[in-house]
Amino acid sequence: MAEAPGPRPEPLRFFGTTWLNHDNGYTARRVAVSVGSLAAAVASCLVLRLAYQGLQIAAIGDFVTVLMVAMFAICSALAFRHTWDGYTRRPDPDRQAALRGLLTVGFVGSLLAYFFRSLTEAPGERLHREEYEEARKQYEKRTTRRSGNPRNRRRA
After folding, report:
1. Is residue 91 scored above 90 in pLDDT?
2. Contact 115, 84 (CB under 8 A)
């Protein structure tokens, strides 16, 4: 069966193009992504807990310990917000590159944003759907043939 002409939907990580019609295991993928991202966030928190215990054992002082905890908390909150916003609009590539370190440190926030978004839709689905529908409208507008006699058109 030949594919319809026009724009193609952009695949999403873990979902491919199943987000378009919610077929081919879309629901199972959403459940798996939700569970996987939550499990990764929990495992990450356990690793951070081990790092915190290492700081306690090293007895480097309360000030440095507080700085480390604050750094991970702030970076995680910023990463959550940045990741969450990335599901509704395309991020600026230059800003994305500038925030790469912050997003790496705040990986727990990104994982939690992915988890919460996957509870309602495939992460990024709404943005991709809007872009795809706009591309379809533009395609239809370009390919629609004018009907009637061109001489009867009003001149502007």
Report:
1. no
2. no
